[in-house]
Design a protein that fits this description.
Helix content: 25-40%
Number of helices: 11
Structural class: alpha/beta
C-alpha cells in the first residue's frame, strides 16, 4: 500500500505498487515521464535533480532491462548510483533481508531500488530503512514501473488510456507485470481482458476487474492493445503447458490471431521475449504495430520520473525538509 492520497503530484514517500494510487497521481508520473522522454532525446541528457544523492540498486533477482534502465535513470538525474549484486554477495552467506536493511541504513542512501523474488519483501524492507524505496518487482506481486512505462507507451500512441480495450495474454499466474498493469489500466478507465490456458490464469483474477478468456481468438476480438507476457518457465514447478510448440499454437501471437484484433492494434511485450513461444518474430518486429522497442525507451523516462518524484520528498541538502 502507498500513503494517503493527494489531489495533485505524488505525495508518497515510496513507490511499492500501483495498488492504492489514484488517477491524478498516476497521471502526474506519466506527465513527468513524458517530459523526460524529450529530455532523453537531446544531446545533453543529464540534469542535476538528484545531484548529491545516493541511489542503491539492490537486485536479489537477475535483471538486465530493469536494472540497466534504473542505473541510467539515476545517472541522468545526477545521482551517485551503486549497483549491489546481492545474489552473489552476503545474502548467499546467510545474511537475512533485515540484516541487509541494517547494513544499508548505516550507509545512508537516499533512494533504494529493490527487486526480490518474494512477494511483500520490498514493502518489509521499506519499513526498516530510512530512505525512499522503489519496487522493481517482488515475486508475483507487483512491478509498478513496468506498468507505468506500458501506460506511457499506450498514451503516447493513443492519446489516452480511458476506453482502450487491452488484452493481456499468456502466463498471468506468475506475472507481476500483469497484476500491476491490470490495476493501473482499470484505475485509468481501460477495459482489460486476460487470455491464457486455465493452468496459467489465477482462479480469482476476475476480482481484479477483468474478463477471462481461455480461447485466444475470442479474447483478441476487437481489442486495441495486445500485451504478450513471457512464459516464466523458471517459476513453474510441474507441468503447466503440454509443450512449448502446442503452447505457441494455442496462445502464441502470430499474424492469423492478430487479425482478430483491431486493424491498428498495438503489440506489446515487457521482455525478454521468447520468440516462437509467446510471439512470432514477424509480429514482434512489425514496424507499424509493434511498440516493444518504444517500451524500452519509455522505461528510462518513467524511472527518471519516479526517482524525481520521490526525490522531491527527501530532506534538501542543507538538512531542511523539501
Amino acid at each position: 500500500m502507498n500513503d494517503t492520497a493527494s489531489p495533485a503530484g505524488y505525495p508518497h514517500r515510496h513507490l511499492l505498487g500501483i495498488e492504492g494510487l489514484h488517477p491524478p497521481e498516476i497521471a502526474y508520473l506519466l506527465d513527468l515521464a513524458d517530459a523526460y522522454v524529450e529530455q532523453n532525446r537531446q544531446i545533453d541528457k543529464k540534469r542535476a535533480v538528484l545531484r548529491g544523492r545516493t541511489q542503491v540498486n539492490l537486485f536479489f533477482e537477475a535483471s538486465t532491462r530493469t536494472s540497466t534502465s534504473f542505473e541510467l535513470a539515476g545517472k541522468r538525474l545526477g545521482a551517485d548510483v551503486i549497483n549491489m549484486a546481492v545474489a552473489r554477495s552476503s545474502v548467499q552467506k546467510g545474511e537475512t533481508l533485515l540484516d541487509t536493511a541494517m547494513t544499508l541504513n548505516a550507509m545512508h542512501p537516499d533512494v533504494l531500488v529493490v527487486r526480490h523474488g518474494d512477494s511483500g519483501a520490498v514493502q518489509l524492507l521499506s519499513q526498516k530503512v530510512g530512505c525512499a524505496v522503489i519496487n522493481a518487482g517482488d515475486g508475483a506481486h507487483e512491478h509498478p514501473t513496468q506498468a507505468l512505462l506500458d501506460a506511457l507507451t499506450i498514451r503516447r500512441r493513443r492519446g489516452h488510456l480511458d476506453g482502450q480495450v487491452v488484452a493481456i495474454c499468456g502466463d498471468i499466474l506468475h506475472s507481476r507485470v500483469a497484476r500491476s498493469n491490470i490495476i493501473l489500466l482499470n484505475t485509468m478507465g481501460a477495459e482489460v481482458r486476460v487470455i491464457g490456458p486455465p493452468t496459467l490464469v489465477p482462479a480469482a483474477v476476475e476480482a481484479l476487474g477483468v474478463t477471462v478468456h481461455h480461447d485466444m481468438r475470442k479474447g483478441l476480438n476487437g481489442v486495441d492493445i495486445v500485451m504478450m507476457l513471457r512464459l516464466q518457465i523458471e517459476r513453474m514447478q510441474g507441468s503447466y503447458v503440454p509443450s512449448l510448440r502446442e503452447y505457441f499454437q494455442l496462445y502464441g501471437l502470430d499474424q492469423s490471431k492478430l487479425e482478430l484484433a483491431k486493424p491498428d492494434a498495438l503489440i506489446m511485450h515487457p521482455g525478454p521475449m521468447n520468440r516462437g513461444v509467446e510471439i512470432d518474430s514477424l509480429v514482434a518486429d512489425d514496424i507499424n504495430r509493434s511498440v516493444i522497442r518504444e517500451q524500452v525507451e519509455m522505461g528510462v523516462a518513467v524511472r527518471m520520473a519516479c526517482l524525481d518524484a520521490l526525490g522531491r520528498h527527501l530532506p534538501n541538502l542543507n538538512g531542511a525538509a523539501s
